[in-house]
Amino acid sequence: MYDKTKFIFVGLDLHKEQHTAVIMDCFNEKLGEITFQNKPSKFSKLITKSKKYCTDGKEIIFALENSYGYGRALAAWLIEKGYLVKDVNPALSYAYRKSVPQYKKNDSYDAQCVARVAINELNTLPDAMPEDMYWTLSQLVNRRANLKTHHIRLKNQLHEQICIAYPSYKQFFQDIGRPTALYFWEHYPSPRFLRNKSVEELAEELIPVSHNQFSRRKCQKILDAVKADGDTTREY
């Protein structure tokens, strides 16, 4: 259990480019405020400002709302300097904000609410632990998820285009993203590029691209399906 009278509390409202900090005592009285840029070269300003209120040997507790987002760099810096950093669930600070009638959002009051959460919920708040390994793994997982989503979106867009030019395309390319299929769409975006193309000529192109997985019979199937579709050519 913490003795709150031995601490001052610094609540931070975190943003991509700058942070706002409000300094309070254990009686919820505001002592000071500072806004500084979100980069390590400016973090020392927060310490200098906060230490002005460390009378009678008081220590500092920093409270960051979601210390794993925009405040991650600051949280890591503070922890490395030996300071106690608490992670505040945004739901808690949101409840404090909404407790004021006709609340109008601003960085200063948001930071003050984070500090109030730290004061009143000090013994239950978890310590911030922005470990580099977990952050890096999280970034890799998010990047992979974004690439997968983008890949699916691109394939869906390709489906939309192909189904107009080649209504029967699924008869010869079930997976439109395979190397042979991508080669075909690039070189034959419209059936008009296949005019006067013989089975032998098409096979001579596609079989090497497919590493001999394609066949002359499959090439014949493409030409037959295109012919059966009729003329899909449009001016644009």
Automatic annotation (TrEMBL):
Transposase IS110-like N-terminal domain residues: 10-162
Record GO biological process: DNA transposition
A single MF term (Gene Ontology): transposase activity
Pfam families: DEDD_Tnp_IS110
Protein name: Transposase
